[in-house]
Amino acid sequence: MALEADSIIGVLLAGGLARRMGGGDKPMQTIGGQSMLARVIARLAPQCDGLILNANGDPARFADLKLPVVADAVEGFPGPLAGILAGLDWVAANRPQTRWMLSAAADCPFLPKDLVSRLDDARHTQDTPLAVAASGGQSHHVIALWSLALREPLREAVVNEGCRAVGRWMARYPVATVEWPMTPFDPFFNANTPDDLAEADRLAHLDQA
User: Fold this and answer.
1) How far apart are alpha carbons 153 and 163 in whole angstroms?
2) CATH for 4-206, among 1.20.1740.10, 3.40.50.300, 3.40.630.30, 3.90.550.10?
3) Where would a tag sit more exposed on the chain, N or C end, judged by fewer CB atoms within 10 A?
4) What are the boundaries of each domain within the chain?
5) In this model, does residue 130 exceed pLDDT 90?
6) Among the listed residues 43, 147, 31, 39, the one whose alpha carbon sits nearest the alpha carbon of residue 91
7) Quick one: pLDDT band at residue 162, thresholds 50, 70, 90?
8) pTM for this predicted structure
């Protein structure tokens, strides 16, 4: 078993308003007979030393998942940085020796099974406080490995500076970027609209990983 300092806790970001999906809990939408959130949990649970869910509103609606549910650390739905900060705060309070946290969007149902290991190798090799997933030449900033040492600088940016853009904030630090192939489809596909849901349902039948 890994030492706690070397363990990685994952936070699943489900705190958004899902406006393009008509509201509600977008990750609970079903594709291929499973909710997107269930698929994300199934992918990440074997890769992490524990998972937590970032979601706002009544946490009881997620009781069946048996995961800690943490709300945004900042009011007003300011975006994923608030959810990431909430995750970092939870890890600091509940796993104080843990030094790394994975963030992942809860509406990305096809995440790679080597996501954590490759990000962790990259941040270690390049000695960076952040490692970010990419595909097709595009960085997916919310799918990243974060040093717990970034917690207070992130709080300053979100609370006092009003920073909302994940990529813009990350640009302040050295970042290791890890690229994944786009075949047979983009492993970081996320569903934002009803049309995306239909496409995700189609891809679920191709996903044999």
Assistant:
1) 11
2) 3.90.550.10
3) N
4) 4-206
5) yes
6) 147
7) very high
8) 0.91
* Strand-pair partners of 51: 10
The predicted model gives 37-43 an average pLDDT of 95
Q: Which residues contact 88 (CB under 8 A, 6 or more apart)?
A: 101, 146, 148, 150, 151, 154
The tokens for 201 are: 């349902």
* Residue 78 pLDDT grade (very low, low, confident, very high; cuts 50, 70, 90): confident
Rounded-to-integer distance, Cα 150 and Cα 140, Å: 18
Helices (H), 29-146: 36-44, 80-94, 115-126
Which two three-digit tokens encode residue 23? Answer: 């509201």
Q: Which residues are CB-neighbours of 95 under 8 A, at least 6 positions away?
A: 4, 7, 9, 50
pLDDT of 171-197, one tens digit each? 999 999 999 999 989 999 988 888 888
